[in-house]
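Page 47, continued from p. 46.
Same chain as before, 627 aa.
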Amino acid sequence: MERRLAAILVADVVDYSRLMGKDETGTLTELRRHRSELFQPMAAQHNGRIVKLMGDGILMEFSSVVEAATFAVDVQTEMLQRNADIAEERRMAFRIGINLGDIVIEEEDIYGDGVNVAARLETLAEPGGICVSRSAYDQVRDKLDLSFKDVGEVEVKNISRPVQVFHIQIDERAAALASTVKTTETASRPNWKPIYAFIAVLVPIFVAGLVWWQYGAPSRGSPTAENAVVSPRERPAIAVLPFTNLGGDPDQEYFADGITEDLITDISKVSGLFVIARDSSFAYKNQSVAIADVAVELGVQYLLEGSVRRAGDQVRINAQLVDANSGGQLWAERYDGALADVFALQDKVTRQIVSALAVTLTPNEEKNLSEAYQVDPFAYDLYLQGQSRVALYSPQANNEAREFFEKAVALDPTFGRAHAGLALTYAVDATFGWSEDTALAQEQAVKFARSALALNSSDPQVHFSLAQVYGSQRRIDEGIEEARKAIALDSNFADAYVLMGIFLSYSGKPELGIEAIHKAMQLSPRHGYIYPYGLTIAYFVMKEYETAIPILESVLERNRNFQQGRLLYISILGLVDRIDDAEWEAEEVLTVLPNFSTAEEEKRVRFVRAVDRKRYVDGLRKAGLPD
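Result:
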């Protein structure tokens, strides 16, 4: 039985029985519409998940109370607008309760006092109102500009102690908060053209698209998020925070980051642990944050933090494992050694975590922990420098990364991950037109991916790179298979889950794609925008355009330069006959991509089924993009 601290939200329809008695079909239709158009996309925007539906009620979990409260304000202010032109007796309103508390996870459900308090708070809310507990209030009162009404302590059913209750006032402050969320995209539009013109000078056509290859980001077998449930966390949950570069030399920052990433990779291979993905951990880089706050935001109990100091070929790693519930250290140690011993040092840290958390290793995991990598230390250093360039997302950085990987391979031809890095740089070149010879780039990508596989078939990163290579060639089914192999070797590999989810959606299996992406979101609560973008590909295939639109708007708000997302947005706007909006967006694309053609886009886009490709291009043409 696993416990953790969580932000829980419960919502229920006011006078549901009365509404059903008057018009059963109409009420059900309206409820489903609000779930699909409002709750579902807003949950994705605010890092929440719908745990389950309970008749007219909804149980949700969020990564933070701030996100839960913002979501609730968004829902209630939007419902006011939706009900404005509806007769009072036919209006559908929701009560919402929010609590920060301890929950128990069992199978595909959550329960416990934390959930019970949220459910009781919901019954205390006014129609169209939001009620929060003291624990939730303490988290949001200084972070959100909202008005609160303290109604004092209230005795609630089946809870031993009274609960102090606060009502969030749906007033001008709440409207301003919701307005900020909804109108940022529109308000910013007048300034986009000069931004895009500047970008067009500095970067080639699809710079932002490179993110698709490296990062982004609940499952019950349902095609929609409204009844998707994340698999329960039956394993100790841990996050590795970015290790500090104690030397202070900015030229060595890549080394501290590389050590952190390798620790995440190694620990995540232990099947008995639930490990938060790299992107979510690195969101805290160079930030002064309280351990307890990070634990709540990421939904973990344990945090590994530390520092790295490098002097020549000598390395010192300080590490400590902290129990966020108690705030105490489970262990803290210092490891010293030569650069050549860095893998052995990493293995020591991993073994200490396994021991401290009483995790049982499989025979293969025990073997892997007992065998330090035999890699030339200088080749490893070059590899880390290459990895740091890959994350910069530009043609120049991609070329620099390739040079580092080539040097690493030259020093140590048996270093499989360096071969995989080379494969990735060529795959990206082929995909986004950064190579003068696309066919040659694809050949090189396949060559180095296969050599990486031959050198180290048990490395999930190698299979992940090969999946990306197949994607660049639109060999989607083979890409799915390699992503599955990566996940089989590393059950915590969030990026592999999201890549597989995107590929499954492209192949015409959007329900399975959504399941995989929701799993990725669970592994990376502070995921990148590629994760929700992946959901929109699935919704496009399912023709759930109204669900996809707000999510795409949120994605583009996070990265205005993400042209792949913008093109999908334009296509959907065209398909739903929002031609004015589509034409405006198309004009922005042509500012950045003056030679864009729908004919070339049809060749590039990865939808496997001809009917999906045709529908996608039809939407672009309706928006006025040229053939």
